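Could you please consider the sequence and fold appended to this message?
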Amino acid sequence: MTNIRYKEHLICYDLHHSTEIKQPKYILLLHGFLASKYCFRNMIPSLTKHYHVITMDIPPFGESSKKKNNLYTYDHMVEAIISLLDHLEINQITLMGHSMGGQIALRCSCSHRERVDKLFLLAPCSFMHRSPIFARLVSYNPLAPYIVKKFLRNKGVYEILRQCLYNDQLITREMIEKYKEPFQDNAIFHSIMTWLKDHQGDLLEEQLNTINVPCTIFWGKEDLILPYQLGYDLLRCIKDAKLYLIDNVGHFLPEEIPSIITSAIFADSKA
């Protein structure tokens, strides 16, 4: 585990080197809202056969810094990623993003086209609008972080995972404890309210039209968080895109079908 500072953020990341590739190929994995780089753990052993793999905790999640006065816009996170690539002296990279991380990956390829050579999107946030004025006003309420804390504690990590996964039997005690860890720090609840205030909304159709890198999209047909039909809208907007729909899979694809995703990626690279 390594940290890098970008402006007000201390960002935690890991670099998993491949011992099997002859040339430097890198892939950066971006997790979703309330998750962390931990969610990709089952994909890393396979991915390192073809890539040097970078995972990072997108602030304020995982082990990255959690401060209520930090900036959490998508565009700010994109610039943090570019700063990390510059720090590691990586000119071009493949991006994989799940949910919120998928929207950030899309923004990277839109605003920094020369730095991204390929996209893999796992049920990416798409076509969502900016936080409504009411939600942004609520975020200024000094009691709001405590309300969020109470809601998450009452609902519990287990129930949140159940909503994200199609098969409850995939949930282990280790998963519950790992996903619970960041929420032991009360600072994250203040940061989540700031994130809500800063939320920009997703890329517009005309912005998606400018993305010209190969894009492979994976979506579970039983996704209760983001309906898989959004994948068809992305196909319409992104020139070089294809969509895989998987039966009996929910929203949390990195936890549910890691081997299916990595197999499809390797088949894609050989095509």
